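Hey,
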Amino acid sequence: MLSSPHPKTRVTRTAGLILIAIAITLGAFSPLALSAAEPSTYRSLGRLTGGMRNRFSFMFASDSHLGYGPANRNTELALEDVVAHEKNIAFGVVVGDITETGAGAEYELFKGLTGDLPFPVMGAMGNHESKWQDPQGSLLASGIGPRNYSFEYGSWHFVVLDSTYPGQTIGTLEPATLEWLEKDLRAQPKTRPVAIFSHHPLLYEPSRFQDSDDAFASLLDKFPVRAVFCAHGHSFITWKGQGRDFLMTGALMDAAYTVVEVNGNSLTAYSVKVSPEGRERQKALEVRSRYWNTKKDPALNPISLFSAEPEGDVLLCNLSLAEEAEVSIGINGGTYVSLGTLGKGSHTLPQDIAGQAKGFHRVRVKAVTAQGPFYASREFGKSPYDLVHWRQDLGSAVAGELLPRGSAQVIVGTRDGKIRLFNIETGLEVWEYASGSPWGGGVIDGNRLYFGTAKGEVHCLDVGRGTGIWRASLDPAGFSAPPAIAAVSGGRSVVIGSSSGTLYSLNAVTGSKLWECKATGAIVSAPRFSGDRVTFGAWDGYLYSVDAETGTVMWSLKMGRQVYYAPYLSPVVYEGKVFATTPYDTHSGGALLAAYDLSSGEAVWSTRWPATLLSPSISRAGELVIPGANGSIYAFSPSDGTPLWRMDAGSTLFLAPPGPGPEYVSGGYRGLVTFLTHDAKTDFKVSDASLFVSPLIARLRSGTLVLFADSQGHLAAVRFPN
């Protein structure tokens, strides 16, 4: 716990913070009704208490990684330094990687370290929360605050964005978030300067940590955003983009933070690095006051009238420049190719696209002026409809896995809390249901659909009509994976795991709770039912098998030596054996693939593999098929673990095979996929956004279709190539 340098004022400050918390809870701030989504997703906090000051400072920090011993100590050292040396702090923002793994106890460490500070501290999601034990941000929302929010202080408008995606390190600003951001900014006076915070760096050319630069750049062209504060890289770095200033902060786990001094419409940021020997404080960024004029502002994008039209293997790029600029072009996130200095006026810039796969691509043009680099982009197609059967925009990124209903329909959930049933052949929507919170994927049993949400509710719908039957509110830690259906005495039960580490069993007819079983780590994948057992893995490193009737743990096995190497993905049960995997662990000799006896938990066989193995499944031929994070797909003998075959492709984002074979799909980075069979492979560009969700192969009378969903809200049906 931090000690205040002014002990006599501790009670007063603590009481003040309590009053602030009560004011937030009672709605003392002036909220803007900008979104129909749950309050923990998007919120306006209005003007913070004391926010009329013209001169003030705030703490900008990130990456405390609490839960890791050295990080705990260095974070405390940094916060003690803030209290001791920075006397005019109005508030603090810690933009992600607050915790090491997103565990509830780690969030409590954060609350303990910041609770006695003489200013309020707000948090945000980072990839260390979303990748491990808090995929949907439910623990953060229930204990720290909303995932996206805005507020006013002084003359400034501040916006904090969630740039994470469940289960991933790569970030994204999904369409619903961008829509909320635009509404929020549009509600502000044009004279009010804006600062935006995001965990993943935005418009950072040296390394693209997220896939939303194009959409974000177009928003910057419309609004008076003056500064963008980012993190993730554990370094103090500044850069420019769209005429704006960007700053990455050092990490609290390294006893580093940023203090920003605000004077009217100007701000100056200082990097601070603390050590037992002392502190180092240096100016990192200065943003001067200026008037925003949407017609004459020199920071406005000089690129206009940009178009991109393919003609065979040539892409004709046309644009107009408002001033002389150094121009370069890049395709699909590749290296920018310099075209030299171009003058004011119209230009036609042909580009060779002969080496690009069929599909949807994106071309980006960069124009560097005295104000720094500016960007514009356009999507273009290279014979995409040779394979694309249909494509539509859902308005929000897909969450959870695609769930087939028979062979002709699919159920899709999006991060804005909508659940839809589509006809696979036509792409037409059959029904839509608003769950109020992102689902984690579902399971169908007869005419009923069951699923859990990030809000901690379990829903039961009539799957044919999309109407609710019952809803149970269970766990504020939320559900981020599908449930399983178990056969028990008297009927059927719904079994689902939460980020709190609790496995719940509910009566499938009424939704009443039958039992619960507690693990010590988050459960973020679907449990498996077979015989009289429910088997699941958790982020505590254990694989569990429990009695489906009572929830009694029949056996548990530690598979990973640390949380990072836990059997967190769904196992598969086949012929009386449980098959499970762990991530790659150099210290232990590789990724672990193991088979255990379902009844006793005794090891049948195990092997170490030189690449991370993801979710196992059983093929039509009775093979144990597992995708590797390197993009290869492997097959093993279920009886003894003997490798049978492999298909090689580029690295993948897909956690599970899209079907039981013999056709497979790998890939996903920047929307590039590889269709695989034992005889051939074909690349296709679904989009230039991340494909975080595993595809679904549907075999129809008209042919085989593969459904893909990208991070920018597109759902596409693509014909599997001959």
